[in-house]
Amino acid sequence: MPFHEPSLPKPAPCLAPDDRPVTERLATIRARIDKAATIAQRQPGDVTLIAVSKTHPIEAIEPLLTAGQRDFGENRVAEAQAKWPGLRERFPDTRLHLIGQLQSNKAREAVALADAIHAVDRSSLVAALARAMEQEDRRPDCFLQVNIGDEPQKGGCSIADLPALLAEARSADLPVAGLMCLPPAGLEAAPYFALLAKIARDHGLSGLSMGMSDDFETAVTLGATHVRVGSALFGARA
Ligand SMILES: *Cc1c(COP(=O)(O)O)cnc(C)c1O
Predict the structure, then answer these.
(1) Where does the record place the Alanine racemase N-terminal domain (predicted)?
(2) Which of 1, 35, 58, 87 is most exposed, with minimal Cβ within 10 Å?
(3) pLDDT by 10s per residue, the chain, length 238
């Protein structure tokens, strides 16, 4: 059966939303990541936890910064611009990851702001980012997003188009850190994570941005270097 028609139902999330302070949730999630890495005979330090703070206000983010969390994810450039400059003045070693779909006309603002861009998925965006990096003299890490479940409504380049997109990104001198995916909702994610890991290996890429609140441990056992966790940390988004 092809990967885009798996029949495995997704298991229920094993950590229900809870009322504990966000710093306790952070410690629990970090411990779960470390345990999953250890089981997979990986180094826990090789997995970056990105706290996805989209929709959450500065007041919800501050306790995590105080607790030592430094990698954060936002979906929208405008929201990140509104929230992060002030926080970064106080916590200058913060790394900001833009994880949402990016319009080419926002490339310059994205490059000026972000330390990593996770949804590079088409030629026009590669070109816009290359130009923006030149203009801003800043080179955030880039993850190429793959539409791993071949879903028409999702961003990401097709598996078939990835080699060409990667070649373009490399020849435009983008710092390509690896691949990113968002597997189909409601299905067991493991086959998709395994496929993304294989494609990355085939292309000599070491970074793997995969795994969210419901499946980050699975992602870590299958090689994720960056997990993007929102609701399990901050609670449900409005
Ligand atoms: C919102 C978002 C996440 C975090 O999702 P949760 O299920 O809340 O952990 C991760 N990646 C992307 C691309 C997102 O848009």
Answers:
(1) 26-237
(2) 1
(3) 444 555 556 654 444 456 788 999 999 999 999 999 999 999 999 999 999 999 999 999 999 999 999 999 999 999 999 999 999 999 999 999 999 999 999 999 999 999 999 999 999 999 999 999 999 999 999 999 999 999 999 999 999 999 999 999 999 999 999 999 999 999 999 999 999 999 999 999 999 999 999 999 999 999 999 999 999 999 988 7
Closest ligand 1 atom to residue 232 Cα is: 9
Q: Is 50 in the pocket of ligand 1 (CB under 6 A)?
A: no
Answer yes or no: is 10 within a domain. no
Phi, psi (degrees; rounded to nearest 5) at 235: 90, 175
d(CA 111, CA 96): 11
Mutate which of 10, 52, 147 for ligand 1 pocket (most atoms within 8 A of beta carbon): 52
For ligand 1, the distance from its centroid to the CA atom of residue 231, given in whole angstroms, is: 8
Query: For residue 13, is it within any domain?
Result: no
3 falls within a domain: no
Provide the 10 A C-beta neighbour count for residue 166: 21
**Residue 120 counted as domain residue:** yes
Global confidence as pTM: 0.93
Name which of 89, 24, 43, 3 is nearest 233 in CA terms.
24
CATH of the domain at 186: 3.20.20.10
Domain count of the fold of the chain: 1
User: In which domain, by residue range, is 126 found?
Assistant: 22-234
What element of type H or E holds 54? Answer: none
Task: Write phi, then psi, for 49 (nearest 5 degrees).
Answer: -90, 115
Q: How far is the C-alpha of 58 from the C-alpha of 84, rounded, in Å?
A: 8
